[in-house]
Amino acid sequence: MRLMFVYWYMGGGGSAQDIHHYARAAEALGHEVVLYGPRPRGEHLAERLIFTRDAESADLVAFICEWTTDLRDCDALDLLRLIERVPRERRIVIDCDGGYNDPLSIHGDYNHRDAAASRHWIETCDIFAERVYQPTHHPLRPNVRTFYFHAYDRTWEQPLDFSAKPYGMIYIGHSKFRWGPMERVLRAVEPVRSRVGRIGIVGHGWDALPVWAEAMLMVDAYYTDPTYMAQLGVEVTQAIPFNQVLRWMSKAVFNPVIYRPLFEHLGFVPCRTFETPAASTIPLFGLGADHVREIYGEAALELALPAEHPEEKLYDLLDRPEHYAGIVEGIRLHLTEHHSYEARLRELIAIARGER
Questions:
Q1: Which CATH number fits domain 2-151+341-352: 1.10.1740, 3.30.910, 3.30.1330, 3.40.50?
Q2: Per-residue pLDDT tens for 282-294?
Q3: Phi-psi category of 287—alpha, beta or left, where left has phi over 0 and alpha has psi -120 to 50?
């Protein structure tokens, strides 16, 4: 079976890593994953992917909609060709950012600036495809179905060795709408600051506004408190390519797993959900208990940051990393069984066959 993704490929961000793993899983299972369009220039990581405009040969065409969607000029004629040449029942939308909803505003985070933008995007998606999927078990709209899209790869797994970590804590991710969840983690760190050691945050917008924030009218989205972070001695590093994420995570005893407020409200599952447990670190879940249990299993609740006296959890985690490493091993087994790329690919094939 041939599965085609329509996606504005960016080698250093978005779902680029997922695309690579889907292609590899498809090859192993006797299928093929391709991307629509010409090969992008200067993207050396895309050399092993197949780019084509032969959409008619695809058994399923999936539009991946996320923050990268509007970053590149798109030939509108290509979209018209896709819609004309591929039957509607063979086209789906995978809405990774919650845009296929009415306007939502959650603790300053939002999916659309106004109702008109929401209506326009919903109408656009309805033109693109007959079926819309979101990475949540709790979609708000009755016509939306569940498909997580992001997945776990056991080959990512690093040995859980805590003998010589240069950092106590590292977080990798951009600051977009994430200051509230990050501040909660840092406030928990504050009473045990001397015990934690070095703290690193890697990504755009933590110590200064990204260069694009003003032009995109997103200054508020990238709000942080650099003065407070400096007082805690937080070391900020600019964004890194996706193939360095696990290596950076593995430098620390623990890595917080936090979401944008909108994603947590929607019960979404972004990529960092599956990357952190594979690194040589302890994931610290700054998420609701139901969400942790649903994705990682019951045992993972011991790694959730509690609402009361969270510093006690941090102190115990730093004092007994080997104990918590055993929990991480159990989480890895759970993710391998339920959330592998092979499992996701089989779900996509079922979608292509009209079974989901």
A1: 3.40.50
A2: 999 999 999 999 9
A3: beta
